[in-house]
Write a structure and sequence with these properties.
This protein is mainly alpha-helical. The protein folds into two domains: about 1-110; about 135-238, Leucine-rich Repeat Variant (Alpha Horseshoe). The chain contains 15 helices and no strands. The chain has helices spanning about 5-10, 15-20, 25-40, 50-55, 55-60, 65-80, 90-100, 105-120, 125-135, 140-160, 165-170, 175, 180-200, 200-210, 215-225. The longest helix has 18 residues, at about 140-160. This is TOG domain-containing protein. One of its GO terms (biological process) is microtubule polymerization. Its main location: cytoplasm. One of its GO terms (cellular component) is cytoskeleton.
């Protein structure tokens, strides 16, 4: 048995908290894999282990080691699939940690972060999700802003305007229209068009157009003709 194998075998005897915060990244990685497997096996959302696991994720998803961070997101996704709305008590701190630490990560990390956000919405933690998005769009790194806008687009598109309040998104959009990064501007334009599908073109135009540069107005006007206002949700909250 190699030294690593011995270390991992011994570490399995430790409490979850100690394994997840272990100084050796391989132990933390292994702990997250095990945690995901346990959550995958939970069939009752009232299982007391879910209450035990909930507080772990705030630190786990902020791991400085990229592979470990990705495994932590896997564990979080498994946890959220097993949980019910009671997990919302952990939503704010975990969503904030994901926005701060995961959206500048590797493409797979960003994708898993977005999946977890959608699961939080499914568990009715919409306020915590949108609060985190407000922080996400203020990130100085444009690479982190685009996934935040894109996951809001996805949430609105799938859950609809009864679950995702358009007012919250309308407040966030103006500062994105003048963003120096063209990908941010393109994503914000897509989100604006999606809003039009849900609440109509006129409310969106009356609130947002006066805050836009002429170029963006022209671009949006050109695409508004293709927008139909009969959107229907494809996903429900649990």
């Amino acid at each position: 048995m190699s030294e690593d194998e011995k270390l991992l075998k011994e570490a399995k005897k430790l409490p979850w908290e100690d394994r997840l915060a272990h100084k050796n990244w391989k132990v933390r990685n292994d702990a997250n894999i095990d945690l995901a497997a346990v959550c995958d096996g939970i069939t009752d959302p009232k299982d007391p282990r879910l209450r035990e696991f909930g507080p772990f994720f705030r630190k786990a998803v902020a791991d400085s080691n990229a592979p470990v961070q990705e495994k932590a997101l896997d564990a979080l996704i498994a946890f959220l699939k097993a949980a019910d709305a009671d997990a919302g008590r952990y939503a704010k701190e975990v969503c904030d940690a994901i926005v701060t630490k995961c959206l500048t990560g590797r493409p797979k990390t960003v994708e898993k972060a977005q999946i977890s956000f959608m699961l939080w919405v499914e568990l009715e933690a919409v306020e915590a999700f949108l609060d985190a998005m407000e922080k996400g769009i203020k990130n100085k790194v444009a690479k982190a802003v685009v996934p935040a806008i894109d996951v809001m687009f996805q949430a609105l598109s799938e859950f609809g305007s009864k679950i995702i309040p358009p007012k919250r998104i309308l407040k966030m959009l103006p500062e994105l229209f003048d963003h120096q990064d063209q990908n941010v501007r393109a994503s914000s334009k897509g989100l604006t068009l999606e809003l039009c599908r849900w609440i109509g073109k006129d409310p969106v135009k009356s609130i947002l157009f006066e805050k836009m540069r002429d170029t963006m107005k022209k671009e949006l006007e050109a695409e508004l003709g293709n927008v139909t206002g009969n959107a229907k949700p494809t996903r429900k909250i649990r």
